[in-house]
Amino acid sequence: MPPRAPFLGAVAHLGERFNGIEEVGGSSPPSSTTSSPNPLPVASLYPIIALYWCALQQGRNPWSEQEEEKAARLEQLKVIPTFRDVTYKVHEANAVRWRNEKHTNSWLQTLERHAKLILDMPIDEITQAHVLTVLEPIWSTKPETARRVRQRMRAVFKWGVSWGYIPFNPAGEVIDGALVPMPKVQEHLKALPYQEVSAAIKKIRDSEAWAATKLAFEFMILTAARGGEVRYATWAEIDGDTWTRPAHKMKGNKPHRVPLSIQATVLLRTAKEKLGTESGLIFPSPDGNPLSENALPMRAKKCGIQAVPHGFRSSFRDWAEECSSGSHAAIEISLAHDYGSAVERAYFRSDLLDQRRELNQEWCNFLDPLPF
């Protein structure tokens, strides 16, 4: 057994460290001139001392082990990851919070396509010149793509700076002087004038598409919902004439209630009869899985509709502002948008469900008038 001297030394060392006590275990308490402002009771040190003492009894030196662990961590930092390695780490860390499947996939693909030059280089060997070599060929010809590539490279290098592999971000402000400022062009998603939406619905109904695709497309328009929210909609979310979308399916990460019009309720009845409920999905693909991300855009394209699915939300908004009796707040909440400032939202808790029910019924009557 090791001598008690190391144990007593540990006691004394820890006592001095935490309390300013020169002799732990002495009969007299430390004086006010030597103790710390808030001294720890000696008894509170016993668990720590016990760990040290057990290590010493096993023939180990806890102080040396701590130094060895620290050295091992430092040694690990010497193994410099490549840009590709860090890209995968950053992508994996962020994928859990990204709700857009297309964005999640394209994040990696963009860098793999445009940053081939630096993918397999150690991150600490990549300079501003390398970054500029990646960006310059597309900076003027594909400004939006170039902006995304730079933004994602910055995220990768930011990880490297945080971990101490590199001293600064070579895709950051240091390269601004070498890149011509490009005006940001706002690309609006293609949308139809609201006067043409009824005709678009008829084209979808008359097409040869799978029943779930046609019904999902029309339901998306009737509810002014996003395509992904419709494709992943389940019967469990339907309660009578209300569709409650859970927070994890929403872009804003908040649950959202959607009032269903008479037309939307009839459509759901049709979906249940034609598609069944076995999969739990309202609009399943033939194999029982959610419709693919391309199902709705491709259907619009094949039907010659000059708009993307998301554009029908814009059609609804234009109609609501110009033709409906709905308030601005009801219109914004119908689109699952935040309304007002953060302070206003803190006091305004209503989701205006009744107002939105009237608004949605007006919209659906405009698109497909009821026979009564």
Written account of the structure:
The protein is extended. The chain has helices spanning 4-19, 46-57, 62-77, 83-95, 101-114, 128-139, 143-162, 197-206, 211-223, 227-231, 262-275, 295-302, 311-323, 328-334, 342-347, 353-367, and strands at residues 238-239, 242-245, 256-259. The protein is mainly alpha-helical. The chain has a three-stranded antiparallel beta sheet with strand order 1-2-3.
Which helices and strands, and how do they pair?
Blueprint: H1 4-19, H2 46-57, H3 62-77, H4 83-95, H5 101-114, H6 128-139, H7 143-162, H8 197-206, H9 211-223, H10 227-231, E1 238-239, E2 242-245, E3 256-259, H11 262-275, H12 295-302, H13 311-323, H14 328-334, H15 342-347, H16 353-367
Q: Give a quick account of the main beta sheet: strands, pairing sense, barrel closure.
A: 3 strands, antiparallel
N- to C-terminal distance: 96 Å
Q: Which H/E pattern describes the elements?
A: HHHHHHHHHHEEEHHHHHH
Radius of gyration: 32 Å
Residue fraction in strands: under 5%
**What's the total count of β strands?**
3
Q: What level of helicity do the residues show?
A: 40-55%
Identify the strand order in the major beta sheet: 1-2-3
**Structure annotation, total helices:** 16
Q: Could you say which overall geometry the principal axes of the C-alpha atoms support?
A: extended
Structural class based on helices, strands and sheet pairing:
mainly alpha
Unreliable segments of 5+ consecutive residues: 17-36
The pLDDT mean sits at 83
Q: What tags apply to this protein structure?
A:
three-stranded antiparallel sheet; extended; 372 residues
